[in-house]
Amino acid sequence: MAGTQIPGLLNLPQLLAADQQTGKSPKSCIFVFQYGGLSQLDSWDPKPNAPSDLRGPFKPIATATPGFQVGELMPNLAAISNKYCVIRSMSHRVPVHNVANEMLLAGSSTPRKDSPSLGSIITRLQPAHETMPSYVWLQKFGGGAAPAESAWLSGGFLGTSCSPLLIGERHSDNPANPGFRPTPFASDPDLTTSRLEARRLLLQNTTSDASSTAPDPAGARLQQLQNRAFTLLQSNAAASAFHVDAEPDQVRDRYGRHPFGQNLLLARRLIEAGVRLVSVVAWMGLAPNDRFVSVETWDMHGNAGISIFDNGWNGLGWALPRADAAMATLLEDLDERGLLDSTLVVMAGEFGRTPRISRGASAIGRDHWPNCYSAMLAGAGIPGGTVYGASDETAAYVRDRPVSPEDFGATILAAMGIDPRTRLSPDGFTLPASEGQPIFSL
């Protein structure tokens, strides 16, 4: 694909010229949702020459890649720009949180009610070993802006076997809190392995007797899922992977002692233990004297009484430096452990923010803007130091190489070694895994 590029950078089709992974071990993925929509102008796509009422107070800084700048609140990611690529031309037309999130999850501009998420598709095609969950979700979406639970918790038409294991029903359920124990593995201490096995056999015998007169595919599938659940409950590897407190203090400090930092550390532990996909909602926690409103950290209208440029929970001054440090630590940690080449790391929101700063009664902010925004990809064989696509002079519209939700989803699947054309619909042939085109040639 032709197009402009920053001097000294590779073209993304070259950058993503990964092989088809035929016969190779499947890859893993950590997908970070910047729930609410990060401002592209204050992060990945600064516009220093724009008028002051558009560009905001934060100045751009140089990265380790010549010609590539990011916002000044991201010094840690700037220093390791060789490890990731940025797409500056994400685009769609829906400025509504819940719908746009469903689009992002499904990789589709018009998702069906039963469309599986990309995570469920990956789970179906690249399941983990039976002693580990395939798909884990850290921190539940919340508030009226959340997508329908059917879009991310049900598995869609692929069924509940492809749905994620949810950790973090409430905003306080995260490993930044002392005494955190993931609910699925917090069973009664009196429930020994032998008692659990006895219960499994009793359930199996009961269901076998009830269905002995005729074969029942649905019943057989249910029994298979029940056996998988019992296997997970009895797996020491699965339970121990959730124990973030086993990490050295200096590692936990490096990620940051806030919900997002500790959830990212947990995501790394889960990937290292064999989980195929971990989704993380980038809930950054509360600043001092804040009260909890929602986990929509990046929805920075100023509607929480906090300016988009302030240091409260709903302000860039609080959220972006913490996200910067935690994400840079994750990429470095994965690299140091030899996991980055086999782990795709994605960070994106459902849309961006308006170039023009809005001025409300109590605080200033930026409103919803799906026409042009940014996302980050790293790992899984993707060489870094690259910017794909370009926005116009105010980051309002795509100037070069737009990337739709379909194309973004197809790119993620392809980077995972999955052919987006794989047929997955209920009848087995009508719908492909993705209707988009990867932004590189397979």
TrEMBL record:
It holds the Pfam family DUF1501. It comes from Planctomyces bekefii. This is Sulfatase. It comes from the Bacteria.
